[in-house]
Amino acid sequence: MKNLLVPTDFSPEAHHAYEVALQLARHTGGSVTLLHVLEDLDEAGGGISTLGGRLGGPGIDEIYPIKLMEATKRRLRALVAEGAPLAGAVPVREVIKTGPIGAGILKAIERHHIDLVVMGARGHGAMEHFFVSSNTERMIRLAPCPVLAVKHRHVPFAVKTVVFPSDFSEEAGQAVEQLRETLAAFPEAKLHLLHVLGDRDPFAARQRMEAFAQLAQLPPCEMSEVNASRTATGIEQYAEQVKADLVVIPTHARSGLSSFFHTSIAEAVATHAFPPVLTYHFSHVQPAAEPIPASEYAYPMFV
Q1: Could you tell me which residues come within 8 angstroms of residue 295 by beta carbon, excluding any fewer than 6 positions away?
Q2: Bond into 165 cis (ω within 30)
Q3: Backbone torsions φ then ψ of 230, nearest 5 degrees
Q4: β-strand 31-38 against 221-226: which pairing, if any?
Q5: 111: pLDDT strictly greater than 80
Q6: What is the DSSP letter of 60?
Q7: pLDDT value for 119
Q8: Which residue ranges does the record assign to the UspA domain (predicted)?
Q9: For the chain, where are the alpha helices, taking DSSP H only?
Q10: Arithmetic mean of pLDDT over the chain
Q11: CA distances in angstroms from 48 to 55, 56, 61, 80, 91, listed in the order given
Q12: pTM value?
């Protein structure tokens, strides 16, 4: 969590994400790359002007992208200045890319060797959810590194309570290393293991959580089972109940794994739960040192 990327559209949610990233980078001794992606300038009037060529000077179509780039640089510098009290000695790099937003973010992740993307999200209404949070959801599915979704202002950002929801099936053992890294960044945080039951047996769920905690060699943690009609709803309600500071959800798009780990659940929680939500893919981490054998689980789980 040392090399952080914050894509910004200058919205309040993006600003909240920037504030969290600065505090996190300060905590871990990291740096922040502040990114704004300009949509294709050709579509915005950025093509070469034949009129400008005829007159021997730049035409309106050539001036527009230059002015837009200059205005964007000023807005990014203003954000850097505004965040200086939170940043302290954290290095902040300003980057502007052109093209589709999703592709621009993915290119920045690769070029700047990003460890964590911190993005704003909003999910209060159908239309707002589509326009504001669609890029965050896309990064949850596609980013080759963990993504932290932030919806509200968190100053100070202090992680004292971490919620890790899972079905604690055999596949969950593959998510342990990133969970350990997260807990190592916040050694004073209390870990809550959460099983959303639906209509399943709470005793068997508790056995699976205990086996997971023991074989993963996790620190002492709270174990809870909740009933909810939808997994995402159960996670959101529990996070609110325990006043969680961070929710950690592993995902995987690969077929054959428990449906709990489908990105749709992570996307729903990331854009609705109050605390920041950290998501990451199994493919980005190594399996746990001691894989959890299938014999430890009493019955198959479907979410």
Answers
A1: none
A2: no
A3: -125, 140
A4: unpaired
A5: yes
A6: H
A7: 96
A8: 1-151, 160-280
A9: 12-28, 50-55, 60-87, 101-111, 126-142, 176-185, 202-215, 231-241, 263-270
A10: 83
A11: 13, 13, 6, 32, 36
A12: 0.85
Mean pLDDT of 234-250: 96
Q: Are 16 and 120 in contact (CB under 8 A)?
A: yes
75-78: Cβ within 8 A, 24+ apart: 75/10, 75/36, 76/8, 76/34, 76/36
Report, as an integer, the average pLDDT of 201-209.
89
**CA dist., res. 104 & res. 43, Å (int):** 16
Within 10 A of 190 (CB to CB), how many other CB atoms are there?
Answer: 18
Span 73-87, average pLDDT: 97
Specify the residue for token string 């780990």.
261
Dig out the tokens for 51 from the structure: 């009129």
Q: How far is CA 61 from CA 27, 41, 53, in A?
A: 45, 10, 11
Residue 52 has pLDDT above 70, yes or no: no
Distance CA 134, CA 94 (A): 23
Q: Which residues pair with 48 in a beta bridge?
A: none
- Tens digit of each residue's pLDDT (9 = 90 or more) over 146-175: 999 999 999 999 999 999 999 898 888 888
Residue in the block written with tokens 């508790």: 206
Place of tokens 């002492």: 220
Q: What is the rounded CA–CA span in Å between residue 220 and residue 210? A: 11
Which residues are 116's β-sheet partners? 4
- First-to-last C-alpha distance (Å) of the chain: 30
d(CA 248, CA 221): 14
Domains of the chain with bracketed CATH: 3-150 (3.40.50.620), 161-296 (3.40.50.620)
Of the chain, the percentage scoring pLDDT greater than 90 comes to 63
Q: Give the per-residue pLDDT at 50.
A: 33
Please answer whether residues 150 and 276 qualify as being in contact, where contact means their C-beta atoms are separated by less than 8 angstroms. Answer: yes
